[in-house]
């Protein structure tokens, strides 16, 4: 283990504050558990969600983050989001009384994350922190085996790093058309990398996070696949293969059905080329750190 001098350790609680049995994976009742067993999930955005693409181009709903946190942690435990963006994970952690730390390269996203957190109340004893730092440095902030859940929606290789030309957007009065929907052109931004180097970089980051995760602690990654020059770019396959090489075990693949969030459908490929709309679903890749 590294010594204190080289670490920038955070003083944040990570132990359960509930009375659940030690072997229980979460605080859910049998009835709540039953509802979570379907492999296809659907969510709606609520008022507190950030939908403004100028504020942040790619946010997931608070209710999605909440479900992942409820499934894989107990009250009082510690959640880490390596690419926290607008801070949705922190909001869900605050709602569910979990300690959480989120990292992002961009100061503006860290400020946005902080602004979404309310001042604590009597029933909420947990802490949520947004830190401007890069995911490659996260292992300096935590002791080994203290994190119960690593949960994030990472940047998606350099696939966002191009002009928006989607046919579905061409016919709409859409402010995003022709824009590069990227978080930044910072060279540390994983969104600037091509798929191979991206996969490698994600592998390096997740390998450095593995010792911090408790054994049987979950690590969930939300990614879509993409179409690029009429080729299917299977980001989820690259990440599964890479994380397996780095010591994670794949437990579940859950489909986030986004059909209720898609506004208009263009005719892609008709009548010669069958192409499903990438935005209609995303993957939730659920790994864990294997038991000791
Ligand atoms: C898909 S967004 C996350 C959005 C988040 N789920 C939400 O609901 O707001 C990915 C984020 O990763 C950040 N990012 C890119 N490269 C990074 C790196 N090397 N370290 C930390 N953050 C990074 C980007 O700035 C961006 O905000």
Q: Can you walk me through this structure?
A:
The structure is a single chain. With 292 residues, this protein is α/β, with parallel strands linked by helices. The chain has a single domain, classed as Vaccinia Virus protein VP39 (Rossmann fold). It is 22% helix and 20% strand. It contains 7 helices and 10 strands. It has helices at 30-35, 62-72, 88-95, 107-115, 167-170, 195-209, 235-245; strands at 40-41, 78-81, 99-104, 128-132, 147-152, 213-223, 226-228, 231-233, 249-257, 281-288. Helix 2 packs across helix 3 (88-95) and helix 6 packs parallel to helix 7. The longest helix has 15 residues, at 195-209. Residues 166-174 have low confidence and may be disordered. The site of S-adenosylmethionine (SAM) has 23 residues, from strand 3.
List the helices and strands and how they pair.
Blueprint: H1 30-35, E1 40-41, H2 62-72, E2 78-81, H3 88-95, E3 99-104, H4 107-115, E4 128-132, E5 147-152, H5 167-170, H6 195-209, E6 213-223, E7 226-228, E8 231-233, H7 235-245, E9 249-257, E10 281-288
Parallel strand pairs: 1-9, 2-3, 2-5, 3-4, 5-6
Antiparallel strand pairs: 6-10, 7-8, 9-10
Helix pairs in contact: 2-3, 6-7
The structure holds S-adenosylmethionine.
The site of S-adenosylmethionine has 23 residues, from strand 3.
Low-confidence stretches: 166-174
Roughly how many Å apart are the termini?
17 Å
Query: What share of residues is helical?
Result: 10-25%
Ligands: S-adenosylmethionine
Biggest sheet descriptor: 8 strands, mixed
Mean pLDDT value: 89
Radius of gyration (Å): 19 Å
Q: Per the principal axes of the C-alpha atoms, what is the gross shape?
A: globular
